[in-house]
Write a structure and sequence with these properties.
Structural class of chain A: mainly beta
Largest sheet of chain B: 7 strands, mixed
Oligomer: heterodimer
Structural class of chain B: mainly beta
Number of strands of chain B: 11
Helix content of chain B: under 10%
Number of helices of chain B: 0
Shape of chain A: globular
Largest sheet of chain A: 6 strands, mixed
Radius of gyration of chain A: 13 Å
Number of strands of chain A: 11
Order of helices and strands of chain B: EEEEEEEEEEE
Distance between the termini of chain A: 41 Å
Mean pLDDT of chain B: 95
Mean pLDDT of chain A: 94
Shape of chain B: globular
Strand content of chain B: over 45%
Chain lengths: 108, 117
């Protein structure tokens, strides 16, 4: 079945540093979604990418969908303590498969 | 307020004692799904439902049952819980299960933390 892997599993940064998480699928994806889960919370939708090579930005967050539609990345510029949490990608057609998640910790 | 409501939020039970985790959504969503979250494994799908009376197995369905008799409700049943079902469970819903124009964007419930002794 479809597998979606994310790296790294954990990332510890100093506030102000950049952060990137990568998502790789074993199969071509029709779209990719990104979710954020704050500590003790539930996943919350951030964004969806549909087109090959698509890039979208939300303030300090940049999302990219690979040309082959098998990988994606989320880059955060100048992290803040409010960015703390676990970031999940999810891809697929009618059945979303979630990645393993990247847990981000931000130190002052 | 548009939301997915799960109950109970926390539960400690013993092996073999049947339990049900309820899930209800007020957004008239067709698609509903259950996930379990375990450290290092991400979110794994247990069962999903494309619409009323239509359910299907996800990636880890063993030991679980579901039903979808009404559009708004999608309970998760553990007939004979075992310790390996200790986990954090999330119910989620979306307008549709189809990957069309964002219709499959999921809204999650707050989660139910289950411990089986």
């Amino acid at each position: 079945g479809q597998q979606v892997m994310q790296i790294p599993q954990y990332q510890h940064v100093q506030e102000g540093e950049d952060f990137t998480t990568y998502c790789n699928s074993s199969t071509t994806l029709s779209n990719i979604q990104w979710y954020k889960q704050r500590p003790g919370g539930h996943p919350v939708f951030l964004i969806q990418l549909v087109k090959s090579g698509e890039v979208k930005k939300q303030k300090r967050l940049t999302f990219q969908f690979g040309e082959a539609k098998k990988n994606s990345s989320l880059h955060i510029t100048a992290t803040q303590t409010t960015d703390v949490g676990t970031y999940f990608c999810a891809g697929g057609g009618n059945k979303l498969t979630f990645g393993t998640g990247t847990q981000l910790k931000v130190e002052l | 307020e548009a939301q997915v409501t799960q109950n109970p939020r926390y539960l400690i039970t013993v092996t073999g004692k049947k339990l049900t985790v309820t899930c209800s959504q007020n957004m008239n969503h067709e698609y509903m799904s259950w996930y379990r979250q375990d450290p290092g494994l991400g979110l794994r799908q247990i069962y999903y439902s494309m619409n009323v009376e239509v359910t299907d197995k996800g990636d880890v369905p063993e030991g679980y049952k579901v039903s979808r008799k009404e559009k708004r409700n999608f309970p998760l049943i553990l007939e004979s819980p075992s310790p390996n079902q200790t986990s954090l469970y999330f119910c989620a819903s979306s307008l549709s299960g189809q990957a069309i124009s964002g219709a499959n964007v999921l809204t999650f419930g707050a989660g139910s933390r289950l411990t089986v002794l």
